[in-house]
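>> received
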Amino acid sequence: MTTVRLPLFPLNTVLFPGLVLPLNVFEERYRAMMRELLKTPEDEPRRFAVVAIRDGYEVAPSAPGMPDPTAQPERGPSAGFGPDPLKALHTMACVADAATIRERADGTFEVLATGTTRVRLLSIDASGPFLTAECEELPEEPGDEAGALAEGVLRSFRQYQKRLAGARERSLSSGTELPDDPGVVSYLVAAAMVHDTPTKQRLLQAPDTASRLRDELKLLRAETAIIRNLPSLPAFELTRAPTSLN
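>> returned
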């Protein structure tokens, strides 16, 4: 088992390998993380793990559970995640490679990172200025019939895009090129579908590419059928938590 210790960045979203993640970093714990990453030589990857929050807050006034409007804002690396952050976060994360880390005059950071590989969190250390995690690196296995499944997912995804564009009264660019590598297809479609965090986390955690593609095929067919029979798209965004500035 290959393990690596990485800085940990919890978010109310799921990052997939190959996807780009822009970040506006303003909390002190994550500023400290970026300052530490900047010490890494430019010719080496500046890696950190992005993990979806199971029960807690990106910018937390209190601990996990029901919000307490009277609570004072917490401070420290595990603020918002309770005494055991491992219980507040999902156990599978995605490694992000920060291609750009730019510090602004006010001390905040503008970061552009790309997801690379999946990791499983084994333990979390909150003794420093920011969370770090001991992570097990996970290979991406193709599984059975991944190629054929990818073709089916791409066809269904095209139909889903058309239905979604129509429900939102938006035009769809027909010239968009989609990849043909099954693994890339599985992650691109997982990121592009309009679904909640638990569903996207389930796709990230799929045991292999073929399993992820099978799940996506079911989701795409179901969602396309729903959108086809609705006069307009439900306000999915209203069910989400407020967007964090991180």
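>> The chain is about 30% helix and 25% strand.
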